[in-house]
Write a structure and sequence with these properties.
The protein is an alpha/beta fold. It contains 12 helices and 8 strands. Strand 1, helix 2 and strand 2 form a beta-alpha-beta unit.
Length: 239
């Protein structure tokens, strides 16, 4: 089946409330253009250099999502154009994104990556680190980033129960955050703005849970995902 056909089939299987990120890493621009011509506008890359090269060559109405692990020293290369950074896993990285966004007179949207897998090799914050980051004064002072939600990667396993448990864990952290006093403090509501004008409520608007890939996106959606990252089911396996 063609890329356009694959895309159509996947979009037909997604609820309207779920955003599709077409994971285009390692794929040539011609393949991405086939998806673009079929209506896809959100592409996910995991290497900044590759994303920059594709951004330079492709139409400018594309939203580029950085879905891989981000090295602090590379943030400056994508800061002029990146739409969403999925894998923010430290205050240090967030500070750099904020700094580079300011240099480009932009606000860059980010997701905080939570470590939900059993594999040690996966990156991400634990719940304690997440809460301490969000309640830090340094975070509150950042004017050029906006946290849209959380991202997580499940363990690479055929054990569906384990994957489901990890997805539900991420959803429960998100729900807690939404209800917690910290989240209410940052969430932009007229009530909060009127009661305390000093609270920076612009940099945390929680509406996104990015979890689920080609093999498990249906399960992720059942567990509350609002954004799925799908590559091989659209573009075929890696060459």
């Amino acid at each position: 089946m063609s890329i356009a056909q694959n895309l159509q089939n996947i979009k037909a299987s997604l609820p309207q409330s779920v955003t599709l990120v077409a994971v285009s890493k390692t794929k040539p621009v011609a393949d991405l253009m086939e998806a673009y011509d079929a209506g896809q506008r959100i592409f996910g890359e995991n290497k900044i250099q590759e994303m920059v090269e594709k951004w330079e060559q492709m139409p400018k109405d594309i939203e580029w999502h950085m879905i891989g692990h981000v090295q602090t020293n590379k943030v400056k290369y994508m800061a002029p154009f990146v739409s969403l950074i999925h894998g923010v896993d430290s205050l240090k990285l967030l500070k750099e994104i904020n700094k580079q966004a300011a240099k480009n007179s932009r606000v860059i949207n980010c997701l905080l990556q939570i470590h939900i897998a059993e594999e040690e090799t996966k990156f991400g914050l634990d719940e304690t680190e997440l809460n301490s980051l969000l309640s830090s004064s340094e975070f509150r002072e950042m004017k050029n980033i906006q946290i849209l939600g959380l991202m997580g990667m499940a363990t690479f396993t055929d054990n569906e129960n384990q994957v489901k448990k990890e997805f539900l864990h991420l959803k429960s952290i998100f729900d807690k955050l939404l209800k917690s006093k910290e989240a209410l403090q940052y969430l932009s509501t007229e009530e909060n703005l009127s009661t305390d004008p000093n609270i920076n409520t612009t940099n945390c608007k929680l509406n996104t849970i990015s979890m689920g890939m080609s093999g498990d996106y249906q399960l992720a959606i059942e567990c509350g995902s609002t954004m799925v990252r799908i590559g091989s089911s659209i573009f075929g396996g890696r060459k």
